[in-house]
Amino acid sequence: MLRSQRGPVPWNAVTRGGLASAPLLALVLADRPTAGIPAALGAMLAGINDRPGGRRAAIPRIGLPALAGSAGLLLGGMIAAGGGRSLVILPGLFGLLGLVAGAISSTGPVASACGTQVLVTVVIGAGMPLPEPGPARALLFLAGASWLLMLRLLLPSPGRTRSVPYRFDGERDAVAAVYEAVARLLDASGGPRARQARAALSAALDQAQDALAGPRLRRYASSAAERRLHAQYAAAFPLVEAATALAWADTPLPARIAEGPRGLAAAVRTGGGCGPLPAPARTDAGLAALDDALLRAATVFDRPHGVLPGGRRGRSSAGLFKRAWSAAGREYGLRVALCCATSTFVAQWLHHEHWYWLPATTVFLVKPDLGPLASRVVCRAVGTVGGAALFGALALLVSGPLQLVAVVASCGALLPVATRHFAVQTSVVTVLVLSLVLLGGEPPAASARVVESLLACATVLLVGHLPLPGRRGHGVRAALDTAVGAAHRYVGHVLRTPEDDAGRGALRRDAYRSLAAARTAIDVSAAELPRVARHSAASEGVAGAVERLIDTATACAVQLAHPSAGLPRLHARTLIAHLSELERAQAMTRGAPAWTGAPRARING
């Protein structure tokens, strides 16, 4: 609860956050302050989604939630124009929207941002009294978010040199981090930190994969540098495989072996050639695979024009809705629906004029990727009280609309740093929203906002621990099932077609990435209150068995790719042992799919 993320201050994001209030300033100067509120809300929510990564990856991460929020404001305006307040119709309608948006939110981080924004903006559009019609609010909201996205795409990155093309914003660092993580794994081989180094390598690959995602300008000749960067990323896959196999052997390696990947990391950062690389002794299959991978990487790095590999295939709409309506999606969607309906009913029953604060706060609290439920409820309560107290002190000093705009701009600049801790983020957002409320001509009523936020915290905490029909922990089990299935596909591919390097690399990435997502879900569930945490208590055994199975399959792939090796008996026995271990761990969880046994027969054969 007290732990926060650490790292250098993202000054470029801070600058964008401060400049995001420019549409609000323009509309205030034009004597249209109420029109600036939707624009400022769009910029604020876009600033929350403005996370580190490449420019092109920011397009879906910021743009899709902005479109969802604009649609939510439009729908909220239609609800407000259709009949006002009701103790039955409005809670039922928001509960239905919460069910759909919550189920979709469970499918991924971008979907989570979309679902949250559409629910928040529907509530604000239906409850916030603004003179602008619904379509105008939606366009203003989209304009504010688009302004921040334009800043994200156009402002230069800090520290950019002439050797790095303008469109690269973190992509080179992400790819270089992969090679550095390979070097650290080789250094840690045979020591107690090998497992952590392998997990860090998987995380570096995930970040590089995300940084290189997004739309590409394939038609232009200037994309040669981009093609080369993608080829350098692809050249790391054989190195990753060889390093994982060497770490699996649990044998210390000479320090000079890690010099090659570090030289490749330096070449990625500078954009030049890799130069001479120290070659490891080819005394076994793992070292031979590492030597071959270094040779292939050197060829790619010294080639003037790389080849752009095919990207990951996008997920279909049918697959998205199938995952949304899975057991995990239904469980989360039902809790969001209950929270939305309950908070709306309470807000309407209290006959509060500005009832939208309570359900809007509730929607933020049930967001699935903000950490354990109890922790975020406490952080929200503390952050709201602190933000309201800070705004009360600022209100004594602020006397005009331009000063309120300055407060909004300051909060926007603080958001990129405040997102490192939920309580701090809540305080900054509370000051920002109360400033917008005062700018729109409403009384800020900070004490009433605190009471409503505490009611929202109590609502989410109660609904989050209600015994709903069916078993709890569907999210953890779904993540584990995905990881187990990816591991099965990877093992089967290694044994069937060991010569298919490209297919094996893609399946290995999918397996490790699914395992990382499952471990994150397990960690969050373990930090919940005991009533919730006990439903996934045996999940760590399955995750550990999957991790050992994937590592062993990688070591087997290196052995099978060696021309004179074949699969050693030790590797076969270890692989069978890990398959049996996974079966036993799955049986303890009572719900994961059973292993078919076909790869085991292939090993015995």
Quick description:
By secondary structure, this protein is mainly α. 71% of the residues lie in helices and 0% in strands.
Overview of the molecule:
71% of the residues lie in helices and 0% in strands. It has helices at residues 11-19, 22-29, 33-48, 55-81, 89-105, 109-127, 134-154, 171-188, 194-211, 224-248, 259-270, 285-302, 317-324, 327-349, 357-365, 373-395, 401-418, 422-439, 446-464, 474-496, 501-526, 530-533, 539-561, 569-589, 598-604. Helix 16 (373-395) packs across helix 18. Mean pLDDT is 81; it is low at 217-222, 306-314 and 591-598.
Assembly status: single chain
Number of helices: 25
Q: What is the succession of H and E elements?
A: HHHHHHHHHHHHHHHHHHHHHHHHH
Q: What gap, in angstroms, lies between the N and C termini?
A: 52 Å
Shape: globular
Number of strands: 0
Key attributes of the depicted protein:
globular; 605 residues; mainly alpha; 25 helices; single chain
Write the layout of secondary structure elements.
Blueprint: H1 11-19, H2 22-29, H3 33-48, H4 55-81, H5 89-105, H6 109-127, H7 134-154, H8 171-188, H9 194-211, H10 224-248, H11 259-270, H12 285-302, H13 317-324, H14 327-349, H15 357-365, H16 373-395, H17 401-418, H18 422-439, H19 446-464, H20 474-496, H21 501-526, H22 530-533, H23 539-561, H24 569-589, H25 598-604
Helix pairs in contact: 1-17, 2-3, 2-17, 3-4, 3-7, 3-17, 3-18, 4-6, 4-7, 5-6, 5-13, 5-14, 6-15, 8-9, 8-10, 8-11, 9-10, 9-21, 10-12, 10-23, 11-12, 14-15, 14-19, 14-20, 15-19, 16-18, 16-19, 17-18, 20-21, 20-23, 20-25, 21-23, 23-24
